[in-house]
């Protein structure tokens, strides 16, 4: 089978540049790359379609073609979408319609063969798949990864601030694109069943888009972990050099008598929903944690964000400024460090470094659709304390058996108690480390993920296309992105503010 992956904001390259250094380079890149590699390893031809960037600050994304040298069945194909320079993902919407989708169709027409099916990622990839299907008939699966209405909930969008929020996040485009994607797709693929399918897709803003009770429209396929990168026994050629860089950061930030203490590790984007602020509050509230551990936050592209103002306004105002105030007020300097990790392999090495000090990984997002990061950390050897709101409750708990400690992310007390349990009780640390790693390696592999995707793709290729009577009309903006057709604030308000959120 010939499969196209639609991910306009992906910026894939053979060296995985910037993956942990920019808010647009999140877990979906890992997901798409590893899934594509696993499909290709099973003999299928795979194209990863993304946006071409010709920008001196982003040299890795300039060539039209790229590849992963160890897997000849995959092509990375970069096609223009709007201006040549880098654009954050929220600014891509008009360029997807005007440039990117027409360039994809023209590319395959010139090649003389289209993919048999597409798999679309995020709302912008989903929109691309809808428009391509309308012109070519190519079916697609839709993997949302996260949904815009849930982000609006977490950002507390109200009638008073909806215009301001929409001016930065372009929620109107996103919600309409997501509704179209889940409605027109051959299958909606979620990582979890109860939390993602029956809670996220049930959000009132998506009412009328897809029937969440229809098993012919949904498949639950969890992602996997790459043990060749994150395995506890893996050693990179530059492993010791990475260890030394981490030591240098600890020397910069942590008092000398504390540098051999365990660390509470967090690795996420500096977004409000990731709740780094809640983690710092929990650390500040616990004398036990402050006595027995340091707090270390891996950030994306920010080497010293606790001291330096960052360019992203939301990260600065809603995350870092409040964290700095807590550090000042609670006299936490010398106990907390934050710095950037340059790549996925370096991140894995960093986890292994901190395993030596019996550290713990913490992901206390206010809401986490799946949560691949704690699974990766578990394979590297770190016990996990994770949010109970989202995917970890399904991926790291089976029946009554828990492979991590789950906490209420809104409770500083509960977060602190969960971390104290692991840090202060060696037998708990040993048990969670062993059982967590074994569970992830047993249940979450990319080969298994790919096999399940391929079954779905084969099915939708062989299935007659849905009746037009069941399809939502494509919003005029996505057919002709002009001011006259723009998604209006009133349309967004009608979708979101009139729903019961």
Give a brief outline of the structure:
The chain is an alpha/beta fold and 501 residues long. The chain has 2 domains: 273 residues, Rossmann fold (3-Layer(aba) Sandwich), CATH 3.40.50.2000; 217 residues, Glycogen Phosphorylase B (Rossmann fold). The chain contains 19 helices and 16 strands.
Question: If you had to describe this structure to a student in words, what would you say it looks like?
Answer:
The two termini are 42 Å apart. α1 (27-41) links the parallel β1 and β2. The chain has 501 residues and is of the alpha/beta class. It has 2 domains: 2-224 and 447-496, Glycogen Phosphorylase B (Rossmann fold); 227-443, Rossmann fold. The longest helix is centred in the N-terminal third of the chain and has 19 residues, at 93-111. α10 crosses α16. The protein is globular. 44% of the residues lie in helices and 13% in strands. The chain has helices spanning 27-41, 93-111, 122-136, 148-154, 162-169, 171-184, 193-200, 227-230, 239-253, 276-285, 287-292, 313-329, 344-355, 372-380, 392-395, 412-424, 426-443, 446-462, 489-496, and strands spanning 2-6, 45-51, 65-66, 74-79, 117-121, 140-143, 187-190, 218-220, 263-267, 294-299, 336-340, 360-363, 384-387, 397-398, 401-402, 405-407. It has an 8-stranded mixed β-sheet with strand order 3-4-2-1-5-6-7-8, with helices on both faces. A 6-stranded parallel β-sheet has the order 11-10-9-12-13-16, with helices on both faces. Strands 14-15 form a two-stranded antiparallel sheet.
């Amino acid at each position: 089978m010939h499969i196209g992956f639609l991910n306009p904001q992906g910026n894939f390259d053979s060296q995985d540049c910037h993956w942990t250094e920019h808010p647009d380079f999140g877990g979906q890149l890992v997901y798409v790359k590893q899934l594509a590699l696993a499909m290709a390893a099973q003999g299928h031809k795979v194209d990863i379609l993304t946006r071409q960037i010709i920008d001196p600050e982003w040299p890795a994304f300039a060539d039209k073609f790229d590849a992963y040298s160890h897997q000849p069945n995959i092509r990375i194909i970069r096609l223009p979408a709007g201006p040549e320079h880098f654009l954050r993902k929220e600014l891509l919407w008009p360029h997807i319609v005007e440039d990117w989708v027409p360039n994809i169709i023209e590319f395959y027409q010139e090649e003389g063969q289209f993919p048999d099916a597409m798999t679309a990622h995020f709302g912008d990839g989903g929109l691309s798949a809808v428009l391509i299907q309308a012109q070519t008939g190519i079916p697609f699966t839709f993997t949302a990864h996260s949904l815009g209405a849930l982000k609006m909930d977490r950002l507390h969008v109200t009638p008073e601030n909806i215009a301001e929020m929409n001016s930065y996040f372009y929620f109107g485009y996103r919600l309409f694109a997501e509704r179209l994607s889940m409605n027109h797709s051959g299958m909606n693929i979620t990582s979890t069943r109860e939390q993602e399918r029956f809670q996220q897709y049930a959000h009132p803003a998506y009412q009328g888009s897809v029937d969440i009770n229809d098993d012919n429209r949904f498949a639950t396929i969890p992602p996997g972990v790459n043990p060749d990168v994150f395995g506890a026994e893996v050693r990179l050629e530059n492993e010791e050099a990475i260890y030394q860089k981490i030591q240098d950061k600890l020397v910069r930030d942590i008092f000398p008598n504390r540098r051999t203490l365990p660390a509470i590790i967090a690795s996420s984007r500096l977004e409000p929903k990731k709740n780094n602020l809640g983690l710092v509050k929990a650390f500040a509230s616990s004398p036990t944690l402050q006595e027995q551990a340091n707090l270390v936050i891996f950030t994306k592209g920010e080497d010293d964000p606790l001291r330096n103002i960052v360019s992203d306004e939301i990260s600065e105002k809603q995350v870092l400024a409040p964290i700095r105030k807590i550090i000042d007020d609670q006299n936490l300097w010398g106990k907390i460090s934050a710095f950037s990790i340059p790549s996925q392999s370096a991140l894995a090495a960093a986890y292994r470094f901190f395993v030596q000090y019996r550290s713990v990984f913490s992901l206390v997002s206010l809401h986490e659709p799946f949560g691949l990061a704690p699974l990766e950390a578990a394979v590297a050897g770190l016990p996990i304390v994770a949010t109970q709101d989202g995917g970890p409750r399904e991926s790291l708990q089976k029946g009554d058996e828990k492979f991590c400690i789950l906490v209420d992310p809104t409770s500083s007390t509960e977060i602190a108690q969960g971390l104290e349990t692991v840090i202060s009780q060696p037998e708990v640390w040993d048990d969670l480390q062993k059982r967590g790693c074994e569970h992830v390696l047993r249940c979450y592999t990319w080969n298994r993920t790919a096999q399940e995707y391929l079954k779905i793709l084969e099915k939708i290729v062989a299935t007659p296309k849905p009746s037009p009577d069941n399809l939502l009309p494509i919003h005029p903006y996505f057919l002709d992105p002009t001011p006259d057709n723009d998604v209006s604030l009133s349309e967004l308000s009608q979708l979101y503010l009139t729903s019961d959120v």
